Amino acid sequence: MAAQIDRKELKDIVHTYKRKWEFSACFGAIDDTHIPILAPTENHADYVNRKGYHSVVIQAVVECKYLFRNIVIGWPGNVHDARILSNSEFFKIGEQNKLLPENYHVNVGGKFMGTVILGDPAYPLLPWLLKPYPENPNTIRQHREFNYRLSRARVTVENAFGRFSRWKWRFRRFLKRVDMDISNLIIVIAASCILHNICEMNNEEILLRWLEESSQATATIPLDNTHAQDDSVSIRDHFTNYFMSAVGHDIGQGD
């Protein structure tokens, strides 16, 4: 499932990320969640995730209005986030620079940049996908600032899948183990994501007392950064330098 986006809508999304979460040139965040299932009769060991239960994985790109823009459903629970991404049509299109309207660029600190999505440490660093710098006691202040900005902007996907999940509140059945053929489950999950988008677009109210904690958050396994593309590293570094500049510190106050 993928939702098309036009230039006007993209401009609104990018502006919202800049205004609300102080992250320029962003059009969404990527993450995954695990849906508990009964052990399949075939290849059941492949579905045991790092938490020790059987599951299928949903990978999603979510934007500032909490709408699903792309979903990949059905990979076995023991498959790593990066592998799911690299085998997706979304990844292939991203590598061809065809994710968004052609020639759409944003001025970031005097340099026109392509738009990006934001991921956690489990994902690869790509020209169109930014992830945090590794953190340890010696991490420099600039890198910590970048990581803080990225973490704040990723709240959109966290609110779709994370601890206080809008999608999982609406479809609480997915919080418990699902007894359904996987091929049918994929269809049901896709339908629920479409219905979620309809609810969000119609401003369906969600009361805080209704929000339930989701199933355990998926642990992440940081990937070795040695294979990151050189332009990916320079793009992340440019965002970092911009955030540390006087202009970058003021972006949350409006254009």
UniProtKB/TrEMBL annotation:
Belongs to the HARBI1 family. Its main location: nucleus. It is found in: Nucleus. Keywords: Hydrolase, Metal-binding, Nuclease, Nucleus. It comes from Paramuricea clavata. GO terms for cellular component: nucleus. It comes from the Eukaryota. It holds the Pfam family DDE_Tnp_4. One of its GO terms (molecular function) is nuclease activity. Its cofactor is a divalent metal cation. Coiled coil: none annotated. This is Uncharacterized protein.
